[in-house]
Amino acid sequence: MLQDSEKQWSETEKQIAQQALQTAHQRETSALIANIRDRASSLTELEDLWYLHDLLSTKRHEIDGKYEYNQSTIVFDFARLVKEGWLRLEDIQGLKPETLSKISVLARM
């Protein structure tokens, strides 16, 4: 069960959270574009093309779901993004210290 302090985020915290999601999304999509560009430049067979298609389909589904702002799961979402390297704790400075601590601990699990 969430503590009351986690249920009630200030408008500033909500803005920080939304900006952090945008930042992480930009980082991940930029890395994906660079990866796809590299792979596309070395296509030699039809199977390579189908692999690239499947990769893009999978990544689209994964990314679309990962970056939806959901207040009830945002701490876990941020922990996942930190763990994956798309978000840094500095990107979410301004959130309550206990929230930052929880995200940090979860990211190390």
Q: Main sheet, how many strands, which sense, barrel?
A: none
Structural class: mainly alpha
Distance between the termini: 20 Å
Residue-averaged pLDDT: 93
Q: What is the radius of gyration?
A: 17 Å
Instruction: Tell me the number of structural domains.
Output: 1
- Which residue ranges are poorly predicted, with pLDDT under 50 across at least 5 consecutive positions? 1-5
Note the beta-strand portion: under 5%
Query: H/E element string?
Result: HHHHH
Total strands: the figure is 0
Q: Count of helical segments?
A: 5
Shape, per Cα inertia axes:
elongated
Q: Helicity, in percent? A: over 70%
Short characterization:
The chain has helices spanning 4-7, 11-41, 46-66, 74-84, 97-107. By secondary structure, the chain is mostly helical.
